[in-house]
Amino acid sequence: MVFISAAAAMGGFLFGYDSAVINGAVTGIQKHFGVGNGETAFVVAIALLGSAAGAVIAGWLADHLGRVRTMLLAAALFAISGIGSMFPPSIEVLGVWRVLGGIAIGIASVIAPTYIAEVAPTAYRGRLASFQQMAIVLGITVSQLANWALNQAAGGESTNHLAGIQAWQWMLGVEAVPALVYGLMALAIPESPRYLIADRREEQARKVLVEVEGPGVDLDARVAEIRRVLNTRHKPRLSDLLGGRFGLLPIVWVGIGASVFQQFVGINVIFYYSSFLWQSVGINESNSLLISLSTSIVNVIGTVVAMVLVDRIGRKPLALAGSIGMAVALALAAWAFSYRHGTGDTATLDNAHATVALVAAHVFVFCFAFSWGVVVWVLLGEMFPNAIRALALSVAASAQWIANWAITVTFPNLADWNLSATYVIYACFALLSIPFVAFCIKETKGKALEEMG
């Protein structure tokens, strides 16, 4: 079960790697193509629109091709995108390859939690679903480690050459290696028993249920329960999500809200732009990449904490604690950045306030990692009724990518306008997430997927 979850979550590793690797390449891209913050933000953020599109089609792909074949498709797209991004003749072509990688990210963001939730035993579902977020943060960490190592090997400049190729190109291209691993691991795992029963392959489903739930499982009862739920539905369509006062079903709005809040606290500014962020307050490129690596390590530690606690104390308490911690940390960062002097390449921050900003950024990442980073993906994999799970998750994940795009594309210009005020905005969203969790999120710990609805 651990291997199955880890294999599915390799999509999350590539999701994290592909999302964050651009952080180390931003400076090299700007210098190589001679572009400014606006064009750079466009190239960084354009992948997220691809992710939104990938998330939208992922539910349809999962229901028509199966969960495993959809993973294989995502692996192929990751590999093609990585190689293409390594040799772009222009900034526009790089954007095209980024979109393709974004589509793969969107597919992976939906298919992994869907698959893990469907194969995991109820008692361990939260912990196993956390593999998705752990894989994401490991992907982010490995990308930052690779970026820093390649930058150091190139003499501290991402435009310097290694084996005749600029360092930033290597940063983008090595993604093809984990993409290959993802494809091989996907070939070694079974199809979801719920998909197999829906596809009228009951004997295969029984074998998978024994494999993932143990020989003591009452197969007749489990198959009958799954079939009973499946028989009450038809192939999901967007019209199945409609209803309620505001167009969509209330549970779908809750999923969308959770996805949007996860992004509007500004977490991916840290992972996409941290080298740019720290250089904007006077830290050099090499040290800024080292700081990016340290925040990624904190992210891993926080995710481990979440994996230990999510099935013990529940999803809702973790989310509330994280929201409070993020609001405080972001407010501290905003206060520290208010003491920044100068603009652009001449900007500086005195040592005392730079220290506060660094500590606040690491506390923020830790609070996000042990709460919203894990909880949202766990909830999205299990909160929806069986009849609409894959499709509803696609819609919620798509909303997440659009929110991510909005934050990513606006940050460079907002930072040029007022870095401190930008972090005040993020802090306000963290504050607003507290009543959202308290009044809108229902605890799902210990409930079977067939109970959702």
TrEMBL record:
Gene3D superfamilies: MFS general substrate transporter like domains (1.20.1250.20)
InterPro entries: MFS_dom, MFS_sugar_transport-like, MFS_trans_sf, Myo-inositol_Transporter, Sugar/inositol_transpt, Sugar_transporter_CS
Membrane-crossing segments per the record: 40-62, 71-91, 97-116, 128-150, 170-190, 246-273, 289-310, 317-337, 357-379, 391-411, 423-441
Keyword presence, Cell membrane: yes
The keyword Transcription belongs to this UniProt entry's keyword annotation: no
Membrane topology, record value: Multi-pass membrane protein
Pfam families (alphabetical): Sugar_tr (PF00083)
Domain Major facilitator superfamily (MFS) profile, residue spans: 4-445
Record localization: Cell membrane
A GO cellular component annotation in the UniProt record: plasma membrane
GO MF term set: transmembrane transporter activity
Keywords: Cell membrane, Membrane, Sugar transport, Transmembrane, Transmembrane helix, Transport
Signal sequence, start to end: none
PANTHER family: PROTON MYO-INOSITOL COTRANSPORTER
Similarity comment: family membership: Belongs to the major facilitator superfamily. Sugar transporter (TC 2.A.1.1) family.
Name under which the protein is recorded: Major facilitator transporter
Organism annotation: Kitasatospora cheerisanensis KCTC 2395
Lineage, top ranks: Bacteria, Bacillati, Actinomycetota, Actinomycetes, Kitasatosporales
